[in-house]
Amino acid sequence: MELDIQCEEMNPSRWAELLSIMKTCNAIRLDDCGLSSSNCKDLSSVINMNPSLTELKLNNNELGDVGIEYLCKGLLTPSCSLQKLWLQNCNLTSASCETLRSVLSAQPSLTELHVGDNRLGTNGVKVLCQGLMNPSCKLQKLQLEYCELTADIVEDLNAALQTKPTLKELSLSNNTLGDTAVKQLCRGLVEARCDLELLHLENCGITSDSCRDISAVLSNKSSLIDLSVGDNKIGDSGLALLCQGLLHPNCKIQKLWLWDCDLTNVSCKDLSRVISTKETLIEISLIDNNLRDAGMEMLCQALKDPRAQLQELWVRECGLTTACCKAVSSALSVNKHLKILHMGENKLGDAGVELLREGLLHPNCNIQSLWLGNCDLTADCCTTLATIMVSKQCLTELDLSYNTLEDDGMRKICEALRNPNCKLQQLILYDIFWSAEVDDELRALEESKPELKIIS
């Protein structure tokens, strides 16, 4: 049995009720429930008495260092079999790291530790690394985002990596590491015995200087399938270096996030080669890069290559206009694999939707999720959107937020939703203004179609 509760303040009677349930749960998830250190005493007893408990998720609770000390008493008992521990944003400091080090050293069942968004600091995580180096530690996933780490942490991390062949996922995003530290980390990863599958380095102060070393990891670690370097100013020159690793035969990348990396259409030539030739790649995010229409047209050409297997393409806020929509439509009419397309915050306009129509309605197109929020759309394109909603039965998610559709447009959308051929499950409509009459229509639709969720 699993207990999964979010955003519920716990009064004493409710907490007592849940404690009796927890004694038989294999997973307990209590994110954002106003828990404190006193609740951790009870949870420690639950861990001690419930050997079937394998997952404990307590994100966004003010547990503090004292709470973790209580919790870890249960985690250190011989009967504990916990595998996954989530403590993100729990007001922890470096003082908690000695306690957590003891758990890492003594609890071989623990395979996941998520402690991001806590002020652990470099000194605290150095203590954690000591636990990682213990032969009893079998950790596979370590998440350290927003932990106020600096470049000084890398030497200890590399030492831990050398002794930890079990580690598969390492997330260090949103820490001020800088190029020198990232280069050092990458050299350590190349030499490490671990089969790393996920490496997240978003917003780590990386520039093009680090990209040759990241590329070397891609070339040498065929296990690496998920790389995120978003929110780093690597630029076109950095991307060119990354692509050397991405195009290497050893590279088996599946998910690549490059959002807000100062890329332009110049990078799209290299990215097109990756999309068209790297058959393992199924998801790429290029959000908030100035690719413009010329860049998007190159990407669309790559999507038409028979070898392209991409399933998700995120090009939100990329400086696109109506002019690229013909190329996108052409790609959609050829590519059978693309299921998720994010094109929001681009000035596509009503004419752009009309151009997309042919590709979206083509039998080859298997799109499931289409995001067109803030694309300068008006009521004039809603007849076309309604046709797509009714005709494309694989389409289950549509975002039209921040567009001026008004009542006329919304009524056409409602008419499409009433059609039994429309299989939409989620319609996102943030910041669209409509009358009380249209609001009544939308509420009635939700009642008559329980599978439909309208978010506004």
TrEMBL record:
Which cellular component appears as one GO term in the record? Answer: nucleus
Asked whether the UniProt record includes Acetylation among its keywords, one would answer yes
Q: Name one GO molecular function term.
A: zinc ion binding
Q: Which SUPFAM superfamilies match?
A: RNI-like
Localization in the cell? Cytoplasm; Nucleus
Instruction: Say which domain of life the source belongs to.
Output: Eukaryota
Q: Which InterPro entries match?
A: Leu-rich_rpt (IPR001611), LRR_dom_sf (IPR032675), LRR_RI_cap (IPR041302), NLRP_innate_immun_reg (IPR050637), Znf_C2H2_type (IPR013087)
- What keywords are annotated for this sequence in UniProt? Acetylation, Cytoplasm, Leucine-rich repeat, Metal-binding, Nucleus, Phosphoprotein, Repeat, Zinc, Zinc-finger
Identify one Pfam family in the record. LRR_RI_capping
Asked if the Swiss-Prot or TrEMBL record annotates the protein with the keyword Ribonucleoprotein, the reply is no
Domain C2H2-type residue range list: 316-347
Per its UniProt record, what PANTHER family does this chain match?
NACHT, LRR AND PYD DOMAINS-CONTAINING PROTEIN 12, NACHT, LRR AND PYD DOMAINS-CONTAINING PROTEIN 3
Oligomeric and partner information: Forms high-affinity heterodimers with RNASE1, ANG and RNASE2.
Function as written in the Swiss-Prot or TrEMBL entry: Ribonuclease inhibitor which inhibits RNASE1, RNASE2 and angiogenin (ANG). May play a role in redox homeostasis. Required to inhibit the cytotoxic tRNA ribonuclease activity of ANG in the cytoplasm in absence of stress. Relocates to the nucleus in response to stress, relieving inhibition of ANG in the cytoplasm, and inhibiting the angiogenic activity of ANG in the nucleus.
Q: Output this protein's name.
A: Ribonuclease inhibitor
* Species, as recorded: Nothocercus julius
